Structure formats: structure tokens, C-alpha cells
């Protein structure tokens, strides 16, 4: 009963039913999107083969460097501004216009910088079509203005739009994927369906939410860049960690191991996506009234949730690997078990980021955290890979998961240290 009373207390202290509604819709989006990938996985990997599918994952990882540049870390500070000015359409229009304009310029820069590599680096130029079509993922990020719907508390609209197009991906894949050479087609289908939702959401903002494009103001844009820069560093280093590990597997180990790592990561993400929207959904309310007691309670319950999810992966992970990938992919099970620790780390570090560092305006702590994570992850991966290569080379893919889990532990240590430097009532 005490647990129920505490949960009820937290719910009422947040003073808004829209929080529960936003959490529900964000959770649906975060679950259904990767679930579609899981549903399609057995069909795609059997049709294309692990090497061809691994190349698809490899191409996605490479383009993520450009995608992260385009996102630039605008989401958190922009969501904070929208949440604090929910009725000011003039300010919202100004913010959306400037974020979209800057993301457009960054998209052009990213594409211009990326194309020479496609035509010169052998591993990219030998597979030119799939890397050229991966540019559609930049378009998806360009129109990704989730911060607006998050800030005004209307995640339902954005979620429905996105889900409609992502569900359309299922029949398209069954119709057009039939062999190893169709990994390019799979990239096209993925890019188009991921881009369509954000584009429609942008049109909805203009049509239904009263957002209009305004003249650009250079000083205002510079202010947004300064505010977003720490988050660019944060998310770029976070993406650098994940993408670089995948790239290193593809270059130095094999595309089949890329597919194994991807399957283990997919299984973890199925369950992690039940939890990822917790901090994002709570953000608009907590950031405007941050206090130590509510933050401690949030972290306490997130720890319990994380342990439950990790236990579920331990029990059900192996049969899931067999169903999705077959006996040849069983190494994905220990990968998933090790990576499941990141569910806990992601939730707790996210709580510190959203509810401690941001309200305290200690944005640089967010950047330092991700630099530590990136450097430690890559260093530990190289250490573990060297050990596995010497002792048990057939298990070398585990070195990637171990590197990620160990770096997540270091992130938690830093967050607890940095928390003492922040002033929260």
C-alpha cells in the first residue's frame, strides 16, 4: 500500500493529467517503432542474409554522424522554452522558425561533407547506392520538431502521425524485399517512412497549432546556438560512441557480427523503450518546479523499473533470439544481457540531465558526462577486444557490449559527483 500511496502522491504532485497522456503516447511511439523493426527482422535477415543486413546497419550507423550534427542539441532547451511559454504563439513561431532554418543549413553542410566520402572511401564507394539513400535519414531529422509537441503537451498528435507511416513500412517490406541486393530497397523504405511522419507533423503545426514562419533574427539565432551547443556535444559524443562501435565491428570484425550486435541491441531496445519516455514526459512539469524530494523519488522508482526490465531480458532474451534470428545468432543473447545494464544507466543519467543539470543551468556537466562516456567506451572496447582476440576470438562481439556497459557505469559515477555541485531546493 505504501508504494501505491507514493505513486499516487507523485501523480498528484505533478498536477496534470496531460503528463499521463503524453507518457502513454510517447511510450506507444517508442515501443511500436522498434517493434516494427523486430517484426520485420526475421523476414529481412532471412531474405537478405546476415552480411547484407549487417551492411544496412553499418550504413545507418555511418549516416548517424551527419544526423546528429543536424539535430544540434536544440531539443532540450527548445522544449524548455516551449513548456514555459505554452500560450505564446509568437514566441513559439519564432523559435520553430529559427530551429528549422538552422537545421536546414546544417543539413546542407552535412550532406556536402558526407558525399565526398561516399565516392572516395572504398568501403562506402563499393556500396554507393545504400549510402546515398541513407541521406533520407538526414531529411527525417531536419523535420523532427518533437520539442514543440513535447513542450505544449500534445504528444498524441505527433505520435499518431509518426506511427501511421511507420506501420506502412510493414507491407512495403514484405512486397519489395526478396534477396541480398534488396538492402538498398530496405534503406529507401526506411528513409521514406521515417521522413514522412515529421514532415506531416510540421504541416500540422502550421495548419492546426497556429505556428507561422517568421523573419530570421541573427542575434536570436546566436543565442539558440549558444544554448544548444552543450547538448550538441552531449548527443554527438553519445552517438559517436554507438555509431563508432558499430563501424569498428563492420570494418575490423565482420558484417555478420554487426548483425549479431544489432539483434542484441534490438532486444534491449524493445524493453528500454517502455522506459525512455518517462524522463521526457516528466520534463515539462518537473523542470518548472524542480526539488530534491521529487527527483529522489523519481530516481528510486526508475531504479526499480530498470531492475524488473533487466530480469525480463534475462529470462526471455534467449527464446527471443531464437525466434528472431535463429541458432546462428545465439551470441546476441549474452550481448543483450550485458547491454541491459544500459537501461538502468540511461534512465538514471537521463534523470540527472533533465531534472538536475538543466534546471541548475549546468549544461556543461551534460557535455562532460558524454565525453567521459565516449572516450571510456571506445577505450574499454579496444581493451576488451584485444583480450577476447587473444583468448576467445569467437566471442569478440561481447567486447562491444562490455565496453558500453562499463562506460555507462562511469557515467553514473560522474553524475552522482556532479549532482553535489548543483543547487536544487
What is the arithmetic mean of pLDDT? 83
Number of strands: 0
Largest sheet: none
**Structural class, from helix and strand content?**
mainly alpha
Please tell me the total number of domains. 1
Task: Give the termini separation.
Answer: 28 Å
Beta percentage is: under 5%
Principal-axes geometry comes out as: globular
| Rg over C-alpha atoms, rounded to the nearest angstrom | 21 Å
Poorly predicted runs: 1-16
User: What's the total helix number?
Assistant: 20
**SSE topology string:** HHHHHHHHHHHHHHHHHHHH
**Helical content, roughly?**
over 70%
Provide tags for this entry.
425 residues; mainly alpha; 20 helices; disordered N terminus
Q: What does this molecule look like?
A:
The protein is an all-alpha fold. It has one domain (2-419). The chain contains 20 helices and no strands. It has helices at 2-13, 17-48, 50-71, 75-84, 89-120, 122-125, 128-133, 136-142, 146-152, 155-167, 169-176, 183-208, 218-252, 255-272, 277-286, 292-325, 332-339, 341-357, 363-391, 398-419. Helix 11 (169-176) packs antiparallel against helix 12. It is globular. The model is unreliable at 1-16 (pLDDT under 50).
Amino acid at each position: 500500500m505504501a508504494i501505491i500511496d507514493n505513486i499516487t502522491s507523485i501523480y498528484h504532485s505533478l498536477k496534470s493529467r496531460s503528463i499521463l497522456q503524453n507518457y502513454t503516447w510517447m511510450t506507444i511511439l517508442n515501443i511500436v517503432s522498434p517493434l516494427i523493426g523486430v517484426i520485420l527482422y526475421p523476414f529481412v535477415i532471412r531474405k537478405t542474409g546476415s552480411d547484407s543486413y549487417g551492411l544496412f546497419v553499418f550504413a545507418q550507423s555511418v549516416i548517424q554522424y551527419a544526423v546528429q550534427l543536424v539535430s544540434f542539441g536544440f531539443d532540450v532547451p527548445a522544449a524548455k522554452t516551449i513548456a514555459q511559454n505554452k500560450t505564446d504563439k509568437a514566441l513559439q513561431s519564432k523559435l520553430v522558425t529559427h530551429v528549422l532554418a538552422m537545421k536546414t543549413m546544417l543539413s546542407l553542410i552535412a550532406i556536402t561533407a558526407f558525399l565526398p566520402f561516399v565516392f572516395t572511401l572504398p568501403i562506402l564507394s563499393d556500396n554507393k547506392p545504400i549510402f546515398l539513400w541513407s541521406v533520407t535519414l538526414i531529411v527525417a531529422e531536419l523535420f523532427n520538431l518533437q520539442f514543440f509537441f513535447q513542450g505544449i503537451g500534445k504528444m498524441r498528435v505527433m505520435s499518431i502521425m509518426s506511427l501511421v507511416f511507420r506501420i506502412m513500412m510493414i507491407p512495403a517490406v514484405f512486397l519489395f524485399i526478396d534477396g541480398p541486393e534488396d538492402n538498398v530497397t530496405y534503406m529507401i523504405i526506411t528513409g521514406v517512412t521515417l521522413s514522412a511522419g515529421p514532415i506531416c507533423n510540421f504541416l500540422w503545426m502550421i495548419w492546426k497549432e497556429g505556428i507561422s514562419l517568421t523573419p530570421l533574427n541573427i542575434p536570436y539565432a546566436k543565442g539558440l546556438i549558444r544554448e544548444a551547443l552543450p547538448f550538441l556535444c552531449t548527443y554527438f559524443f553519445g552517438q559517436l560512441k554507438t555509431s563508432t562501435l558499430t563501424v569498428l565491428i563492420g570494418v575490423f570484425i565482420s558484417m555478420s557480427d554487426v548483425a549479431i550486435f544489432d539483434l542484441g541491441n534490438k532486444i534491449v531496445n524493445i524493453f528500454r523503450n517502455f522506459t525512455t519516455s518517462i524522463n521526457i514526459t516528466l520534463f515539462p512539469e518537473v523542470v518548472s518546479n524542480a526539488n530534491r524530494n521529487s527527483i529522489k523519488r523519481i530516481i528510486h522508482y526508475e531504479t526499480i523499473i530498470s531492475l524488473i526490465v533487466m530480469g525480463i531480458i534475462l529470462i526471455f532474451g534467449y527464446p527471443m533470439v531464437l525466434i528472431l534470428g535463429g541458432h546462428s545468432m545465439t551470441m546476441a543473447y549474452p550481448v543483450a544481457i550485458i547491454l541491459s545494464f544500459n537501461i538502468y544507466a540511461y534512465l538514471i543519467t537521463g534523470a540527472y540531465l533533465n531534472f538536475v543539470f538543466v534546471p541548475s543551468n549546468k549544461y556543461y556537466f551534460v557535455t562532460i558526462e558524454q565525453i567521459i562516456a565516449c572516450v571510456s567506451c571506445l577505450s574499454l572496447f579496444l581493451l576488451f577486444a584485444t583480450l577476447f582476440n587473444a583468448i576467445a576470438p569467437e566471442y569478440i562481439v561481447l567486447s562491444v557490449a562490455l565496453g558500453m556497459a562499463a562506460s555507462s557505469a562511469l557515467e553514473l559515477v560522474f553524475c552522482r559527483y556532479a549532482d553535489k555541485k548543483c543547487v536544487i531546493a
